[in-house]
Design goal:
Number of domains: 1
Number of strands: 12
Shape: globular
């Protein structure tokens, strides 16, 4: 906590805005109360001993299953989309403190039983970045929140790496939420074919807020949601509760997305202005946030324990919902094997105004 306070205090000093700062920079300093309000606790969502006693132990529920996992950003600082400064501060501080899964994480597992023509098989993983390019963009290039419109080298996360993270959460504070859904055999094996095609086309080579279905690459949450999209399992509440959708002021976007503009780390750490209005220069960005996903699933899990509306499973101290979706008809894209909607786009930021994954 002392390191966290020190980062804020240093950035808040009179020297935070050096030569070349944007004209409106010094007018946008967040108040101490505003910064304090951004820190979020997940304590109310933690399972109680009574919750754990009422949940059933982990067990294979269906022959064919899709399980999605949502891991929130670190509990010390959370992640907050209430303002540009809130996003920047929480991300920079989590990264600066070296906290694991600094902006949260989402992942997926598909378990398929054998059929007359195919053996039993599974996939577990997600998308991950492979270097420090985002840090270089922020620190050296001074791209500011323009990093949200960029991609960096990525890869499919290895199963054992993800499993190590999950096992740690199960045994520790239980801060991972999951949905285990029964699906049909055809949907299950179709999803395995999808991820094989995804890999064969090298879609995973690009990591960021881009669209997997357009072969642009993907982040962990968009990659995970692409499985649900193909299986036709994206429900209205997910779009309402799991997504962010904001207008990013051009003054906070630097680097190649907005050449000639530089946004210092010091400015980001003390930034107090709101999101852009529709009549000022901006770029819109929307996507799926693992922390919002975690909060939504955990809230619904606790509700199900109270009213019996769904089957609740426990894995160590973690809780999740078990749902039967075997009768859901998948998307045409999964049925036909045409998983992708055309060739990759350019780096034109306008792509953020169309599809969301």
């Amino acid at each position: 906590m002392r390191r966290l306070s020190a980062l804020i205090l240093v950035a808040s000093s009179p020297f935070a805005f050096a030569c070349g700062a944007a004209p409106d920079a010094a007018q946008d300093v967040a108040t101490e109360a505003q910064i304090a309000s951004e820190t979020e606790s997940f304590a109310s969502l933690d399972p109680t001993d009574d919750d754990l006693a009422r949940a059933t132990p982990e067990a294979r529920a269906f022959d064919d299953e899709l399980t999605m996992f949502a891991i929130p950003s670190p509990k010390l600082t959370g992640l907050n989309w209430s303002s540009p400064g809130a996003v920047a501060r929480r991300t920079l501080i989590n990264e600066g403190l070296g906290l694991a899964r600094a902006i949260g994480h989402a992942a997926v597992r598909v378990d398929c039983a054998a059929t007359a023509t195919r053996p039993a098989a599974h996939f577990q993983g997600s998308m991950t970045s492979t270097g420090n390019e985002f840090r270089d963009m922020v620190m050296t290039e001074q791209a500011g929140l323009g990093v949200l419109f960029r991609t960096v080298p990525g890869a499919l996360e290895k199963e054992e790496v993800l499993q190590s993270t999950l096992d740690g959460r199960y045994a520790d504070d239980g801060r991972v939420a999951f949905l285990r859904m029964g699906i049909s055999s055809a949907v299950c094996h179709g999803l395995l074919d999808y991820v094989k095609d995804y890999d064969a086309r090298d879609v995973e080579k690009n990591y960021g807020f881009v669209r997997p279905s357009f072969q642009e690459g993907g982040g962990c949450s968009a990659f995970t949601l692409s499985f649900l999209k193909l299986a036709n399992l994206v429900e209205p509440y997910m779009r309402k509760e799991w997504k962010f959708d904001v207008l990013m002021p051009m003054t906070l976007i630097g680097g190649t997305t907005n050449p000639g503009n530089k946004v210092s780390v010091a400015r980001l750490l003390v930034l107090g202005r709101p999101w852009a209005t529709a009549d000022e220069p901006h770029l819109r960005i929307n996507g799926w946030d693992p922390t919002l996903m975690f909060k939504s699933i955990r809230t619904r899990t606790k509700g199900a324990l109270e009213n019996g509306s769904a089957h609740v499973e426990k894995r160590g101290r973690a809780l999740g919902l078990v749902l039967d979706r075997r009768s859901v008809i998948p998307s045409d894209a999964l049925t036909t094997g045409h998983y992708f909607q055309g060739n990759p786009s350019t780096t034109d930021p306008a792509r953020f105004l169309t599809a969301d994954f």
